[in-house]
Amino acid sequence: LPDVVQLRPVRTVHCTEKFYFIGDDEASNLDEMPLMMSEEAFESAESDYHTLPRARVGQRQRGLCWLLFCGWKVLCGCCCDCLLRTCRKRKELKARTVWLGCPEKSEEKHPRNIIKNQKYNVFTFVPGVLYQQFKFFLNLYFLVVACSQFVPSLKIGFLYTYWAPLGFVLTVTMMREAVDEVRRYKRDKEMNSQLYTKLTMRGKVQVKSSEIQVGDLIIVEKNQRIPADMIFLRTTEKTGACFIRTDQLDGETDWKLKVAVACTQRLPAIVEDSDPHVHESLSIENTLWASTVVASGTVIGVVIYTGKETRSVLNTSNAKNKVGLLDLELNRLTKALFVAQVVLSVVMVALQGFLGPWFRNLFRFVVLFSYIIPISLRVNLDMGKSAYGWMIMKDENIPGTVVRTSTIPEELGRLVYLLTDKTESAKEQYSPSTLTQNEMVFRRLHLGTVSYGTDTMDEIQSHISNSGGGGGGSTTSSTATPSQGKSQHSAGPKVRKSVSSRINEAVKAIALCHNVTPVYESRAGINGETDAAEADQDFSDDNRTYQASSPDEVALVRWTERMGLTLVSRDLTSLQLKTPSGQILTYFILQIFPFTSESKRMGIIVREEATGSITLYMKGADVAMASIVQYNDWLEEECGNMAREGLRTLVVAKKSLSEEQYQDFESRYNQAKLSIHDRTLKVAAVVESLEREMELLCLTGVEDKLQADVRPTLELLRNAGIKIWMLTGDKLETATCIAKSSHLVSRNQDIHVFKPVSSRGEAHLELNAFRRKHECALVISGDSLEVCLRYYEHEFVELACQCPAVVCCRCSPTQKAQIVRLLQQHTSNRTCAIGDGGNDVSMIQAADCGIGIEGKEGKQASLAADFSITQFKHIGRLLMVHGRNSYKRSAALGQFVMHRGMIISTMQAVFSSMFYFASVPLYQGFLMVGYATVYTMFPVFSLVLDQDVKPEMALLYPELYKDLTKGRSLSFKTFLIWVLISVYQGGILMYGALLLFESEFVHVVAISFTALILTELLMVALTVRTWHWLMVVAEFFSLACYLASLAFLNEYFGIGRVSLGAFLDLGFITTKAFLWKVSAITMVSCLPLYIIKYLKRKFSPPSYSKLSS
């Protein structure tokens, strides 16, 4: 290869999508025109122009409050964004010249080709981890309290009392982060150390992936990862193209076809420098992206982008750190406890009369009551979440489920909105051993005057067999050429011959217009090179598989194979079809126009080898093809009919070209492709000049098969009070049909189809019309949705949230994520997004809880999700059973841990008030550490095994899920109940110990602490709803540990400085007086709660207990 050939660079343009909310000039009077939110207002049309919009009134009413409470956050955020933009300016993007094989000639500096997924380095690890921990109020609070113990005047007890729990939490966190960092480092090192072959002037050399530079010529073998973004120069495949696997880049499992640059593919092995320069335009099909894998042959490419400038790195977005609603609620309760702690300390100092250094005493009381906010709260909750994740992954009823985000399992029990793509609710599912697949089945072929369904496909087969498969374009068939076809029309029945000819033309067009490539796996050679000549001779169905970028394409080609016209071979320049008689028809590919989301169609120009005729075939969506084909009166109607049946429609057309027409088109097309500026627009304009007055051949309908368990699963979720929104890119009629067939919309439910709107006035009128409907499902297109959100965001979301189901069709991935964020902003409810494709990733990451399905569309969605499942039906058990248990258990565990801290703080307050409000600790440091660990930790943590309803009952009565979304298991009401219980029990324990043991005052610590431990063990038993054998073991193990400590650690049971070192007498705890008095105190503290619980369950039982009984 010459070292002077300059390749035009591939420019990467970064743009940020912005939404501007502006009004129409034509409808300026709509500024004062509100949406009518009541029936009376709707009847009065004049009131529209005299009332302010509802949203605008709300904005004015909240103005001052918003400025005081939220405005400062917005201002601070804007200032921080400005600073970040100033400090971190993006590198200016500009064109680059790449010298093939001579990277040293480049004057620019490019980043190293290294993969780095580590969060920290050696210097930032400790500061980074500490910042992530202490940005939470709970940990920061304990850090301040622990640091205060270094001040002698503020020291309350031993340092380990405060630093041991905090150190334990930080150590566990740092060890976990360190393990993750080491794993990331090893993975990165393994990837960066992979060896590749580089072509140089001295021959081939081996280089590491991290040493590859821009301009290097790299050889990539079959099944080897592509190390950097490259231009595809040459391949060992005789076709001049190769397949790559992009599942690690975009999650798609279908192979992608890449084409080598034509001029470099044709070059001989040795080229002299004196050869003329080569000028050729590059397209997306000539690129090989980093992190993809070569699936066929060996390729040679020139590196154009390395390291952080590669496409895979630039497209990587950092997912937001999701925090569960339960964690936010507990954080608010923690702040409330802190306020209560400060108030209690102020009361203590006030009762002292603010004597002496009262400010120091105030801080000592704050430290003394610090156990009111237990640091073990976060430890227990984190361990509990890990346990929930383990239970989910070990559930045999939902095999293959993976918990990727272990911090939000409780969110599964709080969901109100479920946003799903159509493919998740409408695809065919298989057994867990074979991953989820999307099966497309050809159902309908419509020719305008006649329609063929699954039961009449044999007629098409007979037509193809009788004509030989040429379809009017082959000299070997009965209707070989147009002239022969015309001569036969007069000889036989005119209608029959006409239908036969049209069928053959339609089937041939479907067999030719696609991007499918037949692959013969069994013919792969030892060195990875396919013997194309040998494969051309072997057309066995057993050895042939089809590869395409879309399952729809494969479904169409397989249908033509069943009809008798089989695609047996394809390369860059030709494709071959086999007729039912075994004859091979060869067509030369002149041009291909791939499908894009903008054009919504694809085309191909072929030249038939036998006749030399040139034909343009095109297929696409009806909205794109309606203006291209010749006038007809049936296309729109039949498209609507097929869409109502739930079929994906494609319009197929053709146009015959003369040699002069094609030569003129080719020259203009090649000139447009060589343009440097506005190349895409110029190419599209040239292609559109050819797409005029095309002959309409047929309309096809492909079915996306429904899964058997989708309907009961959606019905289960709807009965659970979950509102389901279906967001799809399909047309409106198809989405509506899928919603009905999958029972997303019940049979007796009305559907309101939102009319297409393009202006503010139209949106206003249509929203008012929709407001009059009650309890009906909404179907709206993406374009209309964008108009409504531009002018009436608040009103639209409020109306849509009242619908039992919403279907958004023609939605882009960006719109899907935008809808999720709108629901989060305008409602206080939790959202869940479920998807299985790369286009669902943004929606999954934006939702409070993201669920990915591993399927045929790839693993990108499942890897980006918080939870990964293998079948859509598993979501029912995931939410109804595991979501319920996780939320209920975490709520009980969190409140019990706070109760454990509040009760001992109450005892401390009573103790200090009895001794002249002295800031002296009641229990020594070891007892405080033991109280939160070995004495009560195992019984309290065993609450993660508790369940109020059996899994079968939760699935049988999904209505129980509605109570969870109300958040009644953890609220200020339940929190206040636990506060009252803690105050009552703490007062009884301390006053009882002082009252009954007045003569043995030195034993008050052992007496009160023993009663405290027994009370906590009994309270765990009171909280448990379903006993597990591990709960019983935890209760007795903790009791045994405490009794052993009484015998062997009696020196810790004095009353600190007041007792002057008094020790516990072993004989004292064995006396009957000690036993019955401790039992009496414990009974007084616990028995009333047991009685209240019994009476409540008898006269006001919860809904789940009624079902259990």
TrEMBL record:
GO biological process, one term: endocytosis
Residues in P-type ATPase C-terminal domain copies: 863-1101
Compartments in which it is found: Golgi apparatus, trans-Golgi network membrane; Membrane
UniProt GO cellular component terms: endosome; plasma membrane; trans-Golgi network
Stretches for region Disordered: 460-498
EC numbers, comma separated: 7.6.2.1
Residue ranges of domain P-type ATPase A in the record: 202-311
Pfam families per UniProt: E1-E2_ATPase, Hydrolase, PhoLip_ATPase_C, PhoLip_ATPase_N
Protein's recorded name: Phospholipid-transporting ATPase
Source organism: Denticeps clupeoides (denticle herring)
Gene: ATP9B
